[in-house]
Amino acid sequence: MKDYVILNNGVKMPRLGFGVYQIDDLAQAQQVVENGLEIGYRLVDTAQIYGNEQAVGDALMHSNVPRKDIFATSKIWVDNYGYDQTLQAFDDSLKKLHLDYLDLYLIHKPYNDYYGTWRALERLYKEGRIRAIGISSFWNERLADLITFNEKCPEIPVF
Length: 159
Hints:
Blueprint: E1 4-6, E2 12-14, E3 17-19, H1 26-39, E4 43-45, H2 53-62, E5 71-76, H3 83-97, E6 104-107, H4 114-126, E7 133-135, H5 140-149
Parallel strand pairs: 3-4, 4-5, 5-6, 6-7
Antiparallel strand pairs: 1-2
């Protein structure tokens, strides 16, 4: 078995990733991400709602692993949905993560104006600021709707 999967757009995503859900202590979040990278994890998954993007970014910045070898994923939270709000939230996440781009950016849940959010993600993808875009925790009907009425098919990673 390969140690990666190939997404719809050809991007390679590591099969094994390190998530930081429910790690509220920022010093601890930074330390565990640093430790994870040191022992070989290359996919790091966070989200705005986790409140630890800054700690993850600090770990990435202090790591000896080259950026090109790290697959960084984050998710936008429902409070930031909508076209303009998504663009701002994305910039905020990049700043906290100390990154120039994300490898995968996901819509966290199918609530509020996720259509406006998806259009913003498509724009960021076209601009090269995100290598792949997708969804998390969506129902089949909502996924089918996004596939049918938008340009880009969402990635649906399984973490």
